[in-house]
Amino acid sequence: MPEQKKEIVLSGIRSTGNLHLGNYYGALRKFVAVQNDYDCNFFIADLHALTTNPNPEDLHKNARQILAEYLAAGLDPEKSTIFVQSDVPEIAEMYLLLNMHVGIGELMRTTSFKDKARKALGITAPADDSDEAFEKEIIGASTNKRVNAGLLTYPTLMAVDILIQKATKVPVGKDQLQHLELTRRFARRFNSFYGVDLFPEPTDFDFGGQPIKVPGLDGSGKMGKSEGNCIYLVDDPKVLRKKVMHAVTDEGPKEPDSPMSEPIANLFSLLELTSKPEVVQQFRDAYADCSIRYGDLKKQIAEDILAVTTPIRERVNDILADEEYLAKVVRMGAEKARERAAKTLAEVRYIMGIRKF
Ligand code: TRP
Q1: Is 225 labeled as catalytic in the residue annotation?
Q2: What are the residue ranges of helices labelled H in the chain?
Q3: How far apart are the CA of 144 and the centre of ligand 1, in A?
Q4: Cα dihedral angle (63, 65, 70, 76), rounded to 10 degrees?
Q5: pLDDT at 77
Q6: Bridge partners, residue 10, by sequence
Q7: pLDDT of 105-154, one tens digit each?
């Protein structure tokens, strides 16, 4: 009996900055858990990282770092296809082809583009948020403050990442759902324009189970790179303890069974992620009877987080020191990713009328 085809899961991460606890619990740990059940593809989106014009040394360094962190956290190159986006030139070619079916209007109306374009132009609070006003801002911008075209076509590139592998399950954060919606739209449009059934429509993949909340240390909201409230997997123990000890709290419960303020509820969320249920209960009881000391709570959180991150941090360092291993992993990944990409690209070229003479 032929083995049943596994569904194709694909996700990318832009190589900007280190992975934090939110990436770990929200994505990475789940990736590791599903490696046996799906045809898993994880890649480092270094071409996407180029849209913000990083310095070349940083681009490469960050890609290596994130790759090492993926591997250290348990992604297995024998089970999953782990690759670097720029190692698959088929993506760049298909990006050109797909762009012929993408409207500049729909790209300009994408939320992430508006945010990034405004940032590039140094516009903080737009007086007029209409699409017309925004288009005027962009078109009227002086050339030394340009919004590069790569930023505009970011969703095309992301759609190509997904469609070229014919992935159907795409785990992404909330901020990427609009891009996934555009991917579906482009897939439908291509299929119907050429009267083919080439691209499946991908959907968001949350791995079932409860969504995991990983709050930041600043008292409100989730942990995020741009929020500056992160605990990184590779944080040195001293730095990590300091960050946790500085987390925002309140004045403490004044009467038994008081409701928790957001900063304290957030600390308990972190505790729940990394500590044993008995320990969590012990602190809950202490909160309820007002005997809790936030210093003790934070110490517990810091030590339990360190128990998770220390082995990962140590493996990251070992992996980074092993050039040969890293090179082998990306070579293997690129080979596998290119095989399917080349096949899809050949189909796309043929369908669009690029044929052999
Ligand atoms: N845009 C995604 C992000 O910033 C990264 C990404 C690029 C991606 N290509 C992808 C995610 C394809 C999923 C599938 O988070």
Answers
A1: yes
A2: 21-23, 29-34, 46-49, 56-72, 89-99, 104-108, 111-121, 131-139, 149-152, 154-164, 177-194, 237-245, 262-274, 277-288, 294-321, 323-352
A3: 28
A4: 90
A5: 97
A6: 41
A7: 999 999 999 988 888 888 776 666 677 777 788 877 777 788 899 999 99
Neighbours of 148 (CB within 10 A): 14
Q: Establish whether 174 is a catalytic residue.
A: no
Give residue for tokens 């360094």: 61
Choice from 8, 9, 13 to test ligand 1 binding pocket (greatest atom count within 8 A of CB): 13
- Chain centroid to CA 116: 17
With CA atoms as reference, report the closest residue to 13 among 45, 48, 38. 45
Whole-number Å distance between alpha carbons of 145 and 137: 11
Length of the chain counted residue by residue: 357
Terminal CA-CA length for the chain: 41
Check if 12 has its Cβ closer than 6 Å to any atom of ligand 1: yes
Which pLDDT score, from 0 to 100, does residue 209 have? Answer: 73
The answer to whether 287 and 259 have CB atoms below 8 angstroms apart is no
User: For 15, phi and psi rounded to 5 degrees?
Assistant: -85, 75
Cα(158) to ligand 1 centroid in Å equals 6
Question: What's the CA gap between 263 and 297, in Å, rounded?
Answer: 13
What are the tokens at 262?
């957001």
Query: Is the beta carbon of 172 within 6 A of some atom in ligand 1?
Result: yes
Tell me which residue of 85, 81, 83 sits closest to 49, measured CA to CA: 85
For β-strands 169-170 and 81-84, DSSP reports them as unpaired
Whether 299 is a known active-site residue: answer: no
Unique residue bearing structure tokens 């009467």: 255
Query: Residue 132 and residue 151: Cα distance in Å, rounded?
Result: 19
pTM to 2 decimal places: 0.91
The model's pLDDT over 6-53, given as tens digits with 9 standing for 90+, comes to 999 999 988 887 999 999 998 899 899 999 999 999 999 999 999 999
Q: 3-state DSSP call for residue 20? A: strand
Strand partners, 203: 169
DSSP 3-state of 227: helix
Atom of ligand 1 lying closest to residue 167 CA: 14
